[in-house]
Design goal:
Layout lengths: L8 H7 L17 H14 L13 H13 L2 H16 L8 E10 L8 E3 L4 E10 L5 E8 L4 H15 L5 E4 L6 H10 L2 E4 L13 H11 L13 H20 L1
Parallel strand pairs: 1-5, 5-6
Antiparallel strand pairs: 1-3, 2-3, 3-4
Helix pairs in contact: 2-3, 4-8, 5-6
Length: 254
C-alpha cells in the first residue's frame, strides 16, 4: 500500500529525468529511483529519523546516500525550478515570474549545528528561513542562516540570488522589516524596486501580496520534518524545504 507522501506515477513522470545517474560508472542501483524518492518524501512529511524508515523502503543508508548525492548535484533545486514554469502556465501566467515576495521564518534548532543564533524579537534560538515566492506561492529561492541576522541585511544576498535565477523579475515585496538596507540595495545594486507592505490598521489584518508568502510558510508547516530545524548543515535545511515544495508543486501540476 502506498503512503500518503508517495508520488503518483503521473507526478513521477514529470521529474524522473532529474534523477537519472550523471554517469554510468559503478554498480547500478538495485532499487527503483521512485522508491528512494518516496522514502525521502516520507522522511520530510512524517518527520522521522533516517534510521526509522519503515522496512518496506530500501535500507536507510541507501536512501540517505542518494539524498546526499542528489543534494550535492543540485537535483532538488533543478527539479523544482523546472516545475514552477509548468505550474504558472497551467494557471494562465507567463512561465517566468515578474514579481517576487520575500519573508523570513525563525525556527528553533535541535542541535548545536552550523549557523545558529538568537532572534531577540521572537525569542527564538536557531535559524531563519528566508524565502522568495512568486504571486502563486511557488518557491523561487530559499536561504537558511542564523536567526540573529537582521532581515533587512540578510535579505540583500537572498534577493540578489533570486534576481540572478529569475532575470524577468521587475520588483519585490516585503514587510516593514526590510526597510532601509534592503530597499537601498535593491534600488542601487539590482536596479529594481522593493515595495514595503505597511500595516492597514493597528491590529491583525490580511495584507495584499504578503498573504501569499505566509501561505507558503503554512504549506511548509504541513511537513513535520520542518516543524523544527534538525539539520546540521544549512544546505541540508534548504534542500528539505525544496523537497517539501517539490511535493506541493507536483500536486498542482498534475
Amino acid at each position: 500500500m502506498a503512503y500518503p507522501s508517495d508520488l503518483t506515477n503521473d507526478e513521477w513522470n514529470l521529474i524522473q529525468h532529474h534523477f537519472e545517474p550523471s554517469d554510468r560508472r559503478g554498480r547500478p542501483c538495485s532499487h527503483p529511483r521512485k522508491l528512494i524518492v518516496d522514502a525521502i518524501l516520507y522522511v520530510v512529511k512524517s518527520g522521522c529519523q533516517w534510521r526509522m524508515l519503515p522496512n518496506d523502503f530500501p535500507a536507510w543508508k541507501t536512501v540517505y546516500d542518494h539524498f546526499s548525492r542528489w543534494s550535492k548535484r543540485g537535483v532538488w533545486e533543478a527539479a523544482l525550478d523546472a516545475l514552477n514554469p509548468r505550474h504558472r502556465a497551467k494557471c494562465a501566467r507567463s512561465p517566468s515570474p515578474s514579481y517576487g515576495i520575500i519573508d523570513s521564518q525563525s525556527v528553533k534548532t535541535q542541535y548545536a549545528s552550523e549557523e545558529r543564533g538568537i532572534d531577540g524579537g521572537k525569542k527564538v534560538k536557531g535559524r531563519k528561513r528566508h524565502i522568495v515566492v512568486d504571486v502563486l506561492g511557488d518557491l523561487l529561492h530559499v536561504s537558511v542562516h542564523a536567526a540573529n541576522h537582521s532581515d533587512t541585511v540578510a535579505a540583500c544576498s537572498v534577493l540578489e540570488r533570486a534576481a540572478e535565477k529569475h532575470p524577468t523579475i521587475k520588483a519585490f515585496s516585503g514587510d516593514a522589516g526590510y526597510r532601509g538596507t534592503a530597499v537601498k540595495f535593491v534600488d542601487d545594486v539590482l536596479g529594481l524596486e522593493l515595495h514595503i507592505s505597511e500595516k492597514i490598521k493597528d491590529q491583525w489584518a490580511v495584507l495584499p501580496k504578503r498573504w501569499v508568502v505566509e501561505r507558503t510558510f503554512a504549506w511548509l508547516g504541513l511537513f513535520r520534518r520542518l516543524s523544527k530545524d534538525v539539520e546540521i548543515l544549512t544546505a541540508t535545511a534548504e534542500n528539505m524545504i525544496r523537497i517539501a515544495m517539490l511535493k506541493k508543486t507536483l500536486a498542482n501540476c498534475v
